[in-house]
Amino acid sequence: MNEFLEVKNLEKAEAMLKNILLILSGTIFLALMSQLTIPLPFTPVPITGQTFAVMFIGLVYGRKLGSATVLSYIAAGSAGLPVFAGFSGGLTFFTPSGGYIIGFFFAVLVCGYFADKGWTKSPVKLISLLIVAHAVLYFFGLLQLSVFLPNKNVFAIGLYPFIAGDVIKMIILS
């Protein structure tokens, strides 16, 4: 009986260690992809590799592990670690692009949930899923951007310039 409990405890510890390492490596991957930036002169929101990383993490890790990874990334950046775009950190939620960071969490939930349901096996479902996840991300990003730029066309500043890149990222992910 004791051997059985020891084996069960060891298996739980190994699973926990594996998840911690996956979250850590996913957080590092997202932080590295955040540094792939192309600033645009007409918007405070840069083109980055973040959206690719968020979608990838959701599709590969699933809902629970993916959301834990993105939350770890957000927590690390909020604590001041330079993991956000441009090696920035701190409370970037209160900036024009902060809504996109909030949207990362909800986008990874959408990707992870449907990946857990098997949507990654069908190209049509996968593309549909990625479109919905991007729409969720943009909802939060554009909502916050509109608070900071109330008299501007937020679609022209925070959506249209990014569509071509997102299509390329979706093709790579599918």
What does this structure look like?
The chain has helices at 2-34, 50-78, 98-116, 123-148, 154-158, 160-173; strands at 37-38, 47-48. With 174 residues, the chain is mainly alpha-helical. The protein has a two-stranded antiparallel sheet with strand order 1-2. α1 crosses α2 and α2 crosses α6. The longest helix is centred in the first third of the chain and has 33 residues, at 2-34.
List the helices and strands and how they pair.
Elements: H1 2-34, E1 37-38, E2 47-48, H2 50-78, H3 98-116, H4 123-148, H5 154-158, H6 160-173
Number of helices: 6
What are the segments in which pLDDT stays under 50 over at least 5 consecutive residues? none
Order of helices and strands: HEEHHHHH
Largest sheet: 2 strands, antiparallel
User: Portion of residues in helices?
Assistant: over 70%
Strand order across the biggest sheet? 1-2
Helix-strand category: mainly alpha
Shape: globular
First-last Cα distance: 47 Å
Beta strands, count: 2
Radius of gyration, in angstroms, nearest whole number: 18 Å
What is the strand content? under 5%
- Chain-averaged pLDDT: 93
Notable features of this structure?
6 helices, two-stranded antiparallel sheet, globular, 174 residues, 2 strands, mainly alpha
Care to give the gist of this entry?
This protein is mainly alpha-helical and 174 residues long.
